[in-house]
Amino acid sequence: MSPKKRTIVILIADDDAEDRMLVRDALEENRLTNEIQFVENGEELVDYLHNRGKFTDKAKFPTPGLILLDLNMPKKDGREALKEIKADEHLRVIPVVVLTTSKAEEDILRTYDLGVSSFITKPVTFAALVDVMKTLTKYWFEIVELPKP
Predict the structure, then answer these.
(1) How far is CA 77 from CA 10, 18, 62, 141, in A?
(2) Cα distance between residue 140 and residue 18, in whole Å
(3) Which InterPro entries match (predicted)?
């Protein structure tokens, strides 16, 4: 395993505790050793990225190399958070992958228009989620070159 692979932090923004656990388990099932951080809504996501509030410790909450973003969250939804991220010159380089239950064409078009890197509809079964995470991690951590966080 290359050292590059271990240094990339994955930040998962999802308000559903069960979905967070399933994504974490699916990543672990693929023997992914990356550090995984979680936030529960768009406000926390933006605070994390700016190291504000409870996320001020940069060593504990490092800049992620990849964000997995749910669209439907309380306080500030994924669409609003995505818009803020892509409007920020320092944050816009972080790849954002939407991972949501939405299949709405409007969501797909709007998030790509806002600068999302990929749009994935959450699979229904855990086995399918493991497959999606395997493909996603292979692509983002073995195939593409990511900017340094």
Answers:
(1) 19, 18, 22, 27
(2) 24
(3) CheY-like_superfamily (IPR011006), Sig_transdc_resp-reg_receiver (IPR001789), TCS_response_regulator (IPR052893)
Average pLDDT over residues 61-69: 94
75: helix, strand or coil: coil
Split at pLDDT 50, 70, 90, the class of 1 is very low
Answer yes or no: are the C-beta atoms of 76 and 44 closer than 8 Å.
no
Over range 80-99, report the average pLDDT: 94
Beta pairing partners, 27: none
pLDDT beyond 50 at 2: no
Amino acid at 51: N
Rounded Cα gap, residues 65 and 57, in angstroms:
17
pLDDT reading at 6 higher than 90: no
CB atoms within 10 A of CB 33: 11
Task: Tally Cβ neighbours within 10 Å of residue 11.
Answer: 23
Q: Are 97 and 68 in contact (CB under 8 A)?
A: yes
